[in-house]
Amino acid sequence: xxxxxxxxxxxxxxxxxxxxxxxxxxxxxxxxxxxxxxxxxxxxxxxxxxxxxxxxxxxxxxxxxxxxxxxxxxxxxxxxxxxxxxxxxxxxxxxxxxxxxxxxxxxxxxxxxxxxxxxxxxxxxxxxxxxxxxxxxxxxxxxxxxxxxxxxxxxxxxxxxxxxxxxxxxxxxxxxxxxxxxxxxxxxxxxxxxxxxxxxxxxxxxxxxxxxxxxxxxxxxxxxxxxxxxxxxxxxxxxxxxx
Length: 243
Hints:
Blueprint: E1 2-11, E2 14-24, E3 29-33, H1 40-47, E4 58-60, H2 65-68, E5 72-75, H3 89-94, H4 98-101, H5 109-121, H6 137-151, E6 155-159, H7 167-182, E7 186-190, H8 197-200, E8 203-208, E9 210-216, H9 217-220, H10 223-230
Parallel strand pairs: 3-7, 3-8, 5-6, 6-7
Antiparallel strand pairs: 1-2, 1-4, 8-9
Family: Belongs to the ABC transporter superfamily.
Keywords: ATP-binding, Nucleotide-binding, Transport
Domain ABC transporter: 2-234
């Protein structure tokens, strides 16, 4: 279980997250939802120690993140990637094997075979020798998922993996995530489409700078909590699956 206590994060004196405390269950797919600017991506970066927060009380079971960083994969937003960097698809996936290799060790036939298998799982094996700049948004996201698979991480964080991708890629990715969950992996996903919440997630975190609520989808995905997070921005939209 991942435990976060009293986490606040500010950017240039502007509060992005305000005193968030919660728990993320092992072996589940947990979605993070909330309006634009709610602090969803900031939350993930705070948990991973990628931005400075006010708390040192973030535990992965009984460990601090520095003790288990090799066990954690992070798939960032696509717009944060430099697509002009000259790197092939297979080499991006190969990067996922490096945490296990350690310093001063080069990939061998085992790692290259792992890359092939991971690309096959995401149905991208035929693109292995292409530059990442040549891929569509959905194809690129599948490559990043393959990189996480190559890492064989026990915890996977994904920041808006379904934004701007085709339906085929979305289906491939969510099916892989569900298989990973069935194998005991813990998966945390920043998500924007409320209509997919009940289909995709076991647990849910609802943010709007402050924590609105967290828990199982069945217990907290309600009209009251959605209104508390989104306010008038939802208008009269009817959300599929909301209680």
